[in-house]
Amino acid sequence: CINQSAMDSVKMEKAEKYLSDHKIRPVFEYLTAHIIKTRPSHPLDAMILSLQELKANGLDGKKKPTVIFVLGGPGAGKGTNCQKLVQEYGFVHLSAGDLLRAAKQTDSDEGRLIAECIKNGDIVPGHITISLLKQAMNKDLDAIYLIDGFPREIKQGIEFERDITPCRFVLFFECDEDILVKRLLKRGETSNRTDDNEESIKKRLATYHNQSLPVIDYFDCYDKVKKINSAGTMDEVWDNVKKSVSSLL
Predict the structure, then answer these.
(1) What is the mean pLDDT of residues 34-38?
(2) Strongest mean pLDDT among 47-51, 91-95, 195-199
């Protein structure tokens, strides 16, 4: 009996830690208090509605922004179509790559780490990118944000949705690798980007296949992926993009 009691105590401590680490207890407490206070005729429907409101506003009542992750291989057309969405609908475009390239210019250990990661085609530690995105989004919580080139690995996506807000969906630009290489080499003639060269392109594509593509599979499990064939003409791609975001308009 003593051993069983000790085991139960350990299990309880583990359960308490899990609830605390994953911020589950406050959600249950909020929902329970809401149901007791309002006494709805359909409690389950009321709980679902409350959960949806929590996603939008959070437990602290602060409004959370609407976020669309924009993913695809380097050169797939993410930036081009994000700019069109900005012009057409007033969305706010945040390029994770642009934020990191700006941050790498700072004379700091973090800036030097970012520069080294970009040069080698490696993924910058997720907490750095998430911090930069959070700072940028705090400027306008009513906006619809297109986060271009993020998340680059599953862990980044999970941490972003846990700490900031769940994404509405993922726009995924599909394109064959040989087309991507041609586009990047052509862009490199005028972009002056340190990673638009053949060696860096190969590293970026390897990283994309090994770590970024699984992100698509992860979000696809939650029916959050809208796929765009970006190998077509610019007009064809744009038409498909508009159809994909129509639910937000």
Answers:
(1) 74
(2) 91-95
Q: Are 65 and 134 in contact (CB under 8 A)?
A: no
Is the pLDDT score of 2 beyond 50?
no
Taking the alpha carbons of 12, 14, 20, 26 in that order, is the dihedral positive or negative? Answer: negative
**pTM strictly above 0.85:** no
Residue with tokens 């309880």: 12
CB 97, CB 76: distance < 8 Å: no
Given a cut of 70, whether residue 23 has pLDDT beyond it is: no
* Residue 205 near residue 175, CB atoms below 8 Å: no
Kindly provide the b/e burial profile for residues 146-165, where b requires at least 16 CB atoms within 10 angstroms of the residue's own CB: bbbbbbbbbebbebbbeebb
Q: Among 144, 151, 163, 160, which Cα is nearest to 225's?
A: 151
Q: Which of 132, 143, 144 is nearest to 98 (CA)?
A: 132
| Exposed/middle/buried for residue 203 (C-beta within 10 Å: 0-12, 13-18, 19+) | middle
Q: What is the pLDDT of residue 70?
A: 95
Distance of CA 59 to the CA centre of its chain: 21
Contact 145, 91 (CB under 8 A): yes
The CB density around residue 26, as the number of other CB atoms within 10 Å, is 13
CA distances from 219 to 2, 161, 241 (A): 46, 11, 18
d(CA 233, CA 119): 31
Give CA torsion, residues 21, 22, 27, 32, to 10 deg.
-70
Q: How many residues does the chain have?
A: 249
